[in-house]
Amino acid sequence: LQARGSGRIVNLCDVSADRPWPDHLAYCASKAGLAAVTKGLARALAPDICVYGVAPGIAAFPERFSEGSRHTLTRRVPLGREGTPEEVATLARVLLESGDYITGEIVRIDGGRSLV
């Protein structure tokens, strides 16, 4: 990208970088690190390369999750449901195609969960 003098990078972050889960601290710490790398790269590579982060919340439950567990988690989401991998991919695609004046941002896609 640097040799070409332009480009875009999208990192798959996670909302848990800001709200760590006690039982998954290593994962949450790695996502917090990736968020910091995203912001640092955005500064280092500007103005030629834009760097973004996409931070999904619940974006597809593993099959092993019971209906009760799913309900417990989604009832706290203002939009009332889990997201889909396709919605996350669509956001990444929008940033890649249209993010000309955005860099260093971590965009949450969590159905509003981070608001509550």
TrEMBL record:
**Classification of source organism:** unclassified sequences, metagenomes, ecological metagenomes
Keyword Iron annotated = no
**Keywords recorded for this protein, A-Z:** Oxidoreductase
| Pfam families registered for this protein in UniProt | adh_short_C2
Question: Keyword Oxidoreductase: yes or no?
Answer: yes
SUPFAM superfamilies for the chain: NAD(P)-binding Rossmann-fold domains
GO MF terms held by the record: oxidoreductase activity
Family the UniProt entry places it in: Belongs to the short-chain dehydrogenases/reductases (SDR) family.
The name on file for this protein is SDR family oxidoreductase
